[in-house]
Amino acid sequence: MFKPSRIAVTPSPVRIRRRARAWMILLALAPGCVTEPDSEVVEESETEFELSIGPGQLSLSVGETVQLNAAVSSPSGARLYTLGYKTTNPQVMTVSGSGVVKAVAAGTARIDVTATLLDTGGVATASVTVVVGGGVSSARDPLKQPFASTSIWNMPIGSGAVFAPANIDPTPESNPWSMMPLSDADQIVLRPTAPLTDIRYSSAGWSGNSRCGATNSTVLARVPMPADFVVADASGNNSTAFLLADRRTLVQTQPLARCTAGGIATSLVKMPNVDLYGDGITGSHGGSGMSAIGGTIRLGELRPGQLGPQHALKLVIYMKEAYKCATRAACFRWPANTADSYSVGWYGTGASNQNVTNTAMKMGALLAIPGTVDIAALGLETAPARQLAWTLQNYGGYVVDDAYAPQFGFATENGPDGSFVSQFKADYGFDFVQRVTGNHAFMRDVQRLAVALRVVNNNSPTSIGGGGTPRRPLAAPLVAP
Is 15 helix (H, G, I), strand (E, B) or coil? Predict the structure, then answer.
């Protein structure tokens, strides 16, 4: 499957030359692709200033153009400066002296931008690598990004989105031990040729009893599972998705345990099977009845240098700080098809809850950072948080489960292919899971993201993401086996 040539932008390191305290150079290009490069400070000149290149996104086909609106700002007021633009490959990408970029042909080019202050000679330089696609396959791997292009998990936020308050507390119930964020591990087992393994019924669930042994001989499902894959007895949700031998049927259960390599697995419930190529809404996140694989932060995502996951995320929030519903049916909204069995009398009953009467803030709500919010102005300190911000603004995240404690987090992948949280630690040198009391920069960033979220209140089957023009191109169609 092929599509018209598009431009993708990946930043190279930005060098800011000055002797005073560093200000970040913000690189942003026109609609479709946000770039937020790292900055490196070299102490050489004498004046603080900031070079910005807007607008914030880029998505062009060959032959299209975009204006780079570069400008210098300084705390000391207006400054006189000159700007220079240069392309390293004019056969692929041209740029005029006024910063008009044009995609000419397939290939790769780098655009260098230089700002020079006339009064002091201070210089800021930035370079952006631009790839003009041509003859590049747009096929999408269903195992990495499943479900239809118009699935709730793949649809971007639309220009018609109507926002309502979410009122997420950055420190739920003022608890310094709150996880911010937590990681709700989804067990993703996409090994259709692995040995078939029984999943037996266990009534243990979240009772505190051991999940290791089956309650009786009832077989909930027989699924392909590597013999060495083990899921320890624990209290987590462990929503799980297995891919059957036909490479399109997903079996979903919760909570999974497999305490011995090569042994049986156990679970409390099995949900109806789902097509990997379908809408992907339903699944085994018990608090909402939503997917165990759609919206999960997958292995290979949120890695250094990336833009951010290009799909909606799954959010786990403290539902005591949601709408205070009087009936179970009133506790959730589409696309959720249920709420927790304990929802009435729990949801919305937090001591400092600001959402008691806010009917927008229910299980299943789509939360996003409105497009009017300048991500660069949020003060984010860490690279992974900037990626999460990009995703939450362009795709949002669905509330799929109750954290059952004062905390806020995301669903992440665990499985025979590895652990997202381990990958994250190896990439960034710090843990994905943080607590408020630790006051880590990433924790502070997640607090900022949580506060910036709003409910897309007109999200519906006929206006996924709020309707209107999607903020991003739709994911490439899947080709069924």
Answer: strand
Which residues fall within 8 angstroms of residue 363, CB to CB, at 6 or more apart? Answer: 287, 288, 319, 322, 331, 332, 333, 336, 338, 339, 340, 343, 347, 399, 400, 402
- DSSP class per residue in 436-449: GGG--HHHHHHHHH
Report the alpha-carbon distance of residue 189 to residue 94 in Å, rounded.
Answer: 46
- Global pTM reads 0.74
> Are 368 and 395 contacting, i.e. CB atoms less than 8 angstroms apart?
yes
Q: Which domains does the chain have, with CATH numbers?
A: 7-132 (2.60.40.1080), 163-466 (no CATH)
Look up residue 298 and give its amino acid: R
Identify the CA nearest to 156 among candidates 471, 374, 478. Answer: 471
HSE toward the beta carbon, residue 41, CA cutoff 13 A: 14
Tokens found for residue 32: 């479709």
Task: For residue 427, give the 3-state DSSP assignment.
Answer: helix
The whole-number average pLDDT for the span 118-123 is: 79
Q: What is the pLDDT of residue 132?
A: 56
8 A C-beta contact, residue 243 and residue 276:
yes
pLDDT digits (tens, 9 = 90+) for 298-326: 999 999 999 999 999 999 999 999 999 99
Cα 469 to Cα 87, 153, 455, 465, distances in angstroms: 32, 17, 18, 10
Q: Range with the lowest mean pLDDT among 40-54, 209-223, 309-323, 461-475?
A: 40-54
Decide: 265 and 256 in contact? Cβ < 8 Å: yes
